[in-house]
Design a protein that fits this description.
Porin
Length: about 290
């Protein structure tokens, strides 16, 4: 692993050292994508908890440096979403569910790319890959339990910050409220990003970039440590695990029981979509 890292570093340094400085650039972009909170356990529960197509959007600015051989180093600041909607039901259960998880994320990518800059073509191929740091600024979970028996009141469960509230959905009457010892989602993470597309020359120093982009968070988004729920209405301290084993052997997000045994797989935000942006070079082309 150390030898591979050394080879990669030497390759990058040689590419940069062999190129004459070509100049810096700045830019802005909008990224529209299919947002996924991928979890293999959630995926396998079939109809009870199906993934619903969930759009996501990110906006940000970039800055970087392009060398004369077409190699570029890029970074920036992106603010966007990591969302997932769920829906489902099963004849085994006397209810159906509708749920949504929404996170606001701040990302700082560092990528190395390549593009052709010979001045002869207005449209050129551009691609890059790298890593990003992500900060989860805020989150919310909303779950509606819709009972098939019309005489049974529906229940809505909302979670944000360090609080969890259960209410009758119609009368908005609080059933239970809890103060959690920690957030169910981690604050910090890291992931990988890749881009492939075209760069079109609009003016002498202004380019339009249209890229297919994929992002994948490597570390687990969910907190795996035990979380203590304190019932603020009854003042009862109930230590339970945030995700627990279901009697049918599933570990899906909304199929839980208050048991101490659990073995849930990791949750990894995964976005795939199209990025459209402008890039302005702070120098004159030869």
């Amino acid at each position: 692993m150390k030898k591979l890292s050394l080879i990669i570093c030497c390759t990058i340094i040689s590419l940069i050292a062999s190129a004459q400085a070509y100049g810096p650039y700045i830019g802005a972009n909008v990224f529209a994508y299919k947002s996924n909170l991928f979890n293999s356990d959630d995926l396998r529960v079939d109809s009870f908890q199906e993934y619903v197509l969930t759009p996501g959007f990110t906006g940000g600015f970039d800055f970087g440096y392009l060398f004369e051989n077409g190699v570029s180093i890029n970074s920036g600041l992106h603010i966007g979403q990591a969302n997932q909607r769920y829906r489902g039901g099963d004849s085994t259960f006397p209810f159906q569910i509708e749920a949504a998880t929404n996170l606001t994320q701040v990302k700082i990518p560092i990528t190395i790319g390549k593009q052709r800059m010979d001045g002869e073509h207005k449209t050129v191929l551009i691609y890059s890959a790298g890593l990003y740091y992500v900060y989860n600024a805020s989150y919310s979970d909303d779950l509606l339990v819709d009972f098939t028996d019309k005489n049974t009141k529906d229940v809505r469960v909302t979670t944000n910050k360090k609080s969890k509230v259960e209410k009758w959905d119609i009368k908005d009457t609080i059933l239970n409220s809890y103060l959690m010892s920690s957030r169910p989602y981690t604050r910090h993470g890291f992931g990988a990003v890749a881009n492939l597309g075209i760069s079109y020359k609009l003016k002498e120093k202004l380019f339009l970039n249209i890229l297919a982009r994929g992002e994948f968070q490597i570390n687990n988004l969910e907190v795996t440590d035990q979380i203590t729920y304190t019932n603020t209405r009854a003042n009862v301290n109930n230590p339970i695990l945030p995700v627990t084993r279901h009697e049918f052997g599933n570990y899906a997000k909304y199929m839980t029981r208050l048991q101490q045994n659990h073995n849930r797989s990791g949750t990894h935000p995964f976005n795939l979509g199209i990025s459209i942006g402008l890039r302005y070079f702070l120098f004159e082309f030869n």
